[in-house]
Write a sequence for this structure.
């Protein structure tokens, strides 16, 4: 743990004007407030904020950021308040502490939702001041360094997964590759311990076997470049375990097949020297085809610039070489911290190319309907490899691999994406689903009458395109639900011979917790709120009419018919010829215990007796009908049942499942994949079933298959 004077000395070494007294007071305040609190490792809790501050001094961050790092847990975990921080250290520090504190106060139902909401709040916080993100990254880095002391394996796995999914990609986006690399390796160590140890052991073996190989290659490259008239710095390093493992997974190769375990950086004075050095290296050593990338002329979205090439280098070793200037090297090592806008006294704005990705995240945030959708979109944005295409004016547009002209159109402007009808790629008209290649020139064709098509969502890959199309589709569906909901409630008014009056419905908005009539109509149109329920809230005296309707169902002579020869009605206890439908929430089949729910104007819905949906009708017992299956009315009839099936993802698995369904005299009417992960696939399958015995036999047969992990009856449509 850093001592007080050591921390102050670090800050003063790069910022002589830093408030030494403030740093001392913050250090003492953190120690005092955290007092006897302990971490899971047994260390004093105050060691954590001190180490976080120490990490940030490596990036030469300003006084306010270092003080905030020291205080970042005080408001959440100690009696200290925002007002206390503001009084002692000023509003800037207090606001930063509050920004970091807000990120920790997240309570949601599921772990995935918690992670999604966490990320949404993180983006909002860093949009106000990016230093909040830097403090959070340093906080996460120190927590990962001590994660082994966490006693619950489930919690360790969750934190490591979140680190790999969110924090490491964000660090990469900020250009802070040192933090990104360490976060990835630490997460990898907990998520795949066996693979981590295997790769680490092999690296140790190669290091012992090769001796001073890296030093020898560095010396040879320096000599080669000096002979060519360049004075350079050369650094050599091994690739990190996670980077090696990711390459093994991506290319499906073994450790022995990875030849470029070593990477070397050549740092020169000017951009011209970069290309001069590249020429010397390519002249001296064979270049590996397909391994050259020029990030100087086309920088990465985080501002990273460098020349990358693969060569068969000194001593016939296959190596990667990166060539850059000193300034490029600083940006590659320090990322966004290397060009702090506030160092010039211009605030903490997100202007500049290096922050374009963050502005795009904010656009996604405004367009996404939920935190889960936002997280899904941003993961796509952060993980996809990039290509670069040109507009007719020569503007360079960075896009993910497999992007289409629709993605290109939305990258230019949402309005262009919404109205694109076609595209010229390198002068030729091509379909909108055409996959763009690096260097393509794309000219988007527009029409004022064009609107986004739901079909586009199947082939676009950029989050901006996906979210824009979804937003338009949601808007269209909302209009449809508004019309449907309004028609449904108007039908009830008409049936009840009551004059249509929207003011009555406006008075009910607080009852149904809706903000507008359109919101209420949408809920009715989607079936979340029953139109009859709304009417009877407005006219409770008319509910007696509804009871009369139910009485007719219950006491009509044919409702209690028990003639065993009746083959016209599959359900006993209903009026002959009455409209009925089988609820899609529970998929009742003969053999299930069932109940009927009466709905005015719609007839009777048949539910299983244990259907969770029935809870909605607990306060309306008058709507319930006592019914049962009529065995004589069921001959040769089949009923749809929805199954959720988890299977092993390998060739012929699906064929095996479908063959089994066919053997048990059932038919698949609908089949789609709900999710897919490494090695497994989840299916939703609608099958035609005669009765519960038939269903049980089929499910048992499916469960007996070696390729099937689980089979369950679905409760929702």
């Amino acid at each position: 743990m850093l001592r007080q004077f050591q921390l102050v000395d670090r800050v003063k070494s790069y910022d002589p004007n830093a408030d030494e007294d403030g740093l001392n007071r913050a250090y003492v305040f953190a120690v005092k407030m955290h007092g006897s609190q302990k971490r899971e490792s047994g260390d004093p809790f105050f060691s954590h904020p001190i180490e976080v501050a120490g990490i940030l001094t490596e990036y030469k961050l300003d006084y306010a950021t270092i003080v905030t790092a020291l205080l970042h847990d005080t408001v959440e975990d100690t009696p200290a308040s925002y007002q206390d921080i503001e009084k002692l250290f000023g509003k800037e520090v207090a606001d930063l502490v509050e920004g970091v504190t807000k990120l920790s106060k997240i309570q949601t139902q599921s772990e995935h939702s918690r992670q999604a909401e966490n990320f949404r709040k993180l983006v909002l916080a860093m949009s106000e001041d990016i230093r909040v993100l830097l403090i959070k990254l340093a906080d996460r880095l120190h927590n990962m360094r001590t994660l082994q002391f966490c006693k619950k394996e489930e919690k360790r796995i969750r934190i490591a997964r979140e680190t790999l999914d969110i924090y490491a990609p964000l660090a990469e986006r900020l250009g802070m590759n040192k933090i990104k690399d360490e976060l990835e390796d630490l997460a990898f160590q907990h998520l795949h311990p066996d693979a981590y140890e295997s790769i680490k052991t092999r690296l140790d073996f190669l290091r012992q076997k090769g001796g001073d190989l890296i030093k020898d290659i560095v010396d040879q490259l320096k000599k080669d470049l000096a002979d060519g008239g360049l004075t350079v710095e050369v650094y050599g390093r091994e690739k990190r375990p996670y980077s090696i493992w990711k390459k093994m997974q991506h290319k499906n190769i073994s450790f022995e097949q990875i030849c470029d375990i070593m990477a070397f950086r050549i740092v020169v004075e000017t951009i011209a020297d970069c290309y001069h050095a590249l020429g010397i290296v390519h002249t001296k050593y064979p270049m590996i085809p397909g391994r050259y990338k020029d990030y100087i002329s086309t920088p990465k979205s985080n501002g990273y610039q460098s020349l990358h090439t693969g060569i068969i280098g000194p001593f016939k070793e296959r190596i990667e070489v990166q060539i850059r200037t000193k300034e490029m090297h600083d940006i590659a090592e320090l990322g966004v911290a290397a060009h702090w806008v506030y160092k010039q006294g211009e605030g903490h704005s997100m202007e500049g190319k290096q922050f374009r990705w963050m502005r795009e995240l904010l656009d996604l945030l405004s367009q996404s309907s939920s935190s889960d959708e936002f997280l899904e979109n941003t993961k796509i944005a952060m993980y996809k490899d990039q290509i670069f295409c040109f507009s007719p004016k020569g503007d360079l547009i960075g896009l993910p691999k497999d992007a289409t002209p629709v993605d290109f159109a939305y990258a230019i402007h949402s309005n262009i994406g919404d109205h694109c009808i076609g595209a010229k790629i390198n002068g030729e008209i091509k379909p909108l689903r055409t996959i763009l290649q690096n260097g393509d020139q794309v000219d988007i064709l527009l029409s004022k009458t064009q609107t986004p098509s739901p079909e586009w969502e199947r082939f676009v890959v950029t989050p901006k395109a996906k979210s824009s199309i979804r937003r338009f589709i949601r808007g269209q569906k909302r209009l449809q639900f508004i019309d449907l909901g309004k028609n449904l409630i108007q039908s009830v008014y008409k049936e009840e011979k009551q004059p249509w009056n929207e003011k009555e419905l406006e008075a009910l908005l607080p009852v149904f917790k809706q903000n507008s009539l359109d919101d209420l109509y949408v809920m009715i149109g989607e079936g979340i709120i029953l139109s009859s329920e709304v009417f009877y809230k407005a006219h409770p005296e008319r509910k007696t009419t509804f009871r009369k309707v139910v009485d007719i169902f219950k006491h009509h002579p044919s409702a209690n018919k028990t003639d065993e020869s009746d083959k016209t009605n599959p359900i006993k206890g209903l009026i002959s010829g009455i409209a009925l439908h089988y609820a899609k929430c529970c998929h009742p089949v003969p053999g299930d215990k069932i109940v009927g729910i009466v709905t005015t104007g719609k007839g009777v819905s048949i539910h299983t007796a244990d259907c969770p949906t029935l809870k909605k009708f607990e306060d309306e017992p008058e709507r319930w009908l006592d019914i049962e299956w009529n065995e004589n009315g069921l001959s040769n009839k089949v009923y749809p049942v929805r199954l959720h099936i988890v299977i092993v993802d390998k060739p012929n698995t699906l064929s095996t499942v479908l063959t089994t369904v066919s053997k048990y005299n059932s038919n698949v009417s609908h089949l789609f994949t709900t999710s897919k992960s490494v090695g497994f696939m989840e299916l939703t399958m609608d099958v035609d079933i005669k009765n519960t015995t038939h269903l049980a036999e089929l499910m048992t047969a499916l469960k007996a298959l070696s390729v099937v992990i689980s089979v369950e009856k679905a409760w929702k449509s």
